[in-house]
Amino acid sequence: MLDWLASIDPPVAASRWSAWWFLPFAVPISVYVAWTDLKAMRIPNKSVLLLFGCFLGAGLVALPLPEYGWRLVQALAVLAIGFFLNQFGGVGAGDVKFAAAASPLVATADGKLIMILFASVLLAAFATHRGFRALPFARRVTPEWQSWTRHDFPMGLALGGALIFYLILVAVYGV
After folding, report:
1. How far apart are CA 156 and CA 159, in angstroms?
2. pLDDT tens for the 175 residues of the chain, in order
3. Exposed / middle / buried, residue 108 (Cβ in 10 Å: 0-12, 13-18, 19+)
4. What is the pTM assigned to this prediction?
5. What does the domain layout of the chain look like in residue ranges?
6. From the CB of residue 89, how many other CB atoms can be counted at a distance below 10 Å?
7. Residues 146, 41: contact at Cβ < 8 Å?
């Protein structure tokens, strides 16, 4: 089922140890981000700060100190690139902040894996969201969700999902 994972050399660069440290914090925060983005089309700053705070705390235990420092640099790079893209209307500010806060949870060497995973989750999330949006039942159950009527897509659904799936893959297949 995950044969494509074996084609990436090494399959997963991050350690299982780090994934198990990050998973209990990242999953509830990512689910909350997806839910708030679906409901209000915004990612609250408190969830972004909480996720980054979890990295700052758990990362000290989960990662060697030099890697911990590089992942902080990685977060700054993602934030800088994201704000540049935000200036041209390509990405929402909340999405940028969440991606920057989530990026230190991802090993730099897993860049190809996270891009493949994010693209897959984004397509699935988009199709699922648009499919449910077309169902009258879904709209009746959640009439306050702004994502049903807006033309833009709640990217927090895909960003949070990709982070969760990445950490689960690392926890199972990591080094």
Report:
1. 5
2. 566 555 555 556 778 999 999 999 999 999 999 999 999 999 999 999 999 999 999 999 999 999 999 999 999 999 999 999 999 988 999 999 999 999 999 999 999 999 999 999 999 999 999 999 999 999 999 999 999 999 999 999 999 999 999 999 999 988 7
3. middle
4. 0.91
5. 10-173
6. 7
7. yes
